[in-house]
Amino acid sequence: AASGFVLASFVLVASALKLPSYTPACSRNDPKLNECVVRHGQQAIPQFINGDPKYRVPQLDPLTINQLSIRQGTNQVGINLQVRDCKIYGLRHAQFIAARTDLKKRHIEWDFKIPAVQIQGFYNISGKVLILPISGSGKANITINDLSITYKYDWELVKKGNGKHYMNFTNSELLFDNGRAFFQLDNLFNGDKLLGDNMNYFLNENWKEVTRELGPALGEAIGEVFRLLLTNIADLVPYEYIYPDIPVTPE
Hints:
By secondary structure, the chain is an alpha+beta fold. It has a single domain (2-242), classed as TULIP domain (Bactericidal permeability-increasing protein, domain 1). 25% of the residues lie in helices and 42% in strands. It is built from 4 helices and 8 strands; from the N terminus they run E-H-E-E-E-E-E-E-E-H-H-H. It has helices at 33-49, 193-205, 207-234, 239-242, and strands spanning 2-7, 63-73, 78-89, 95-102, 107-129, 132-159, 165-177, 181-185. Strands 1, 2, 3, 4, 5, 6, 7 and 8 form an 8-stranded antiparallel beta sheet that branches. The termini are far apart.
């Protein structure tokens, strides 16, 4: 599976910012570090959703992706799908469910739930879906309900000229599961309404198989967005400010 995306990004600037005031840091010495990460992460979501140029975070709801590409080849689906001027709605309702933090192994896992996301844009598609040929270009509207996302990442620490250490992400993976999905692709088969209506009906009747086949490539593409956002912040905020070495006051 291959995927690609282009996200509007900001100019890189060498900096040593502290975390924003709406995201208090969690001490690396906190025995309840994971609970702290979830609590502070959840309270930051409403702020981050609107974007924060200081931290090179774009608006996240809708999240604009200039181009989302999915090229997937399996026994049932051999498909080439591009969605340009893609907008993803619904991230503002994300719930931060759990965190698993291992600072010694430099490995973190985060779990999120999102009630529904809606993807709108202009698509171009060719190939086969569950043995049926599909082709067309036009407006796309895809809704995916009950998203469960696990994002995993590893990092190394890099010391910069200012003496501070920064997290450099070496590996990341996004896994997701979902409930019902709905598809509406306008202008399939050069505008042949009968064929297009039948294909949309087929996609919606077989939503589980379609999302299962496209899932790995879609997860790869969305994971790249996560990685870019985290990299933007980690390039600006030193590790010492993200997980400070400070005593923890017992509650």
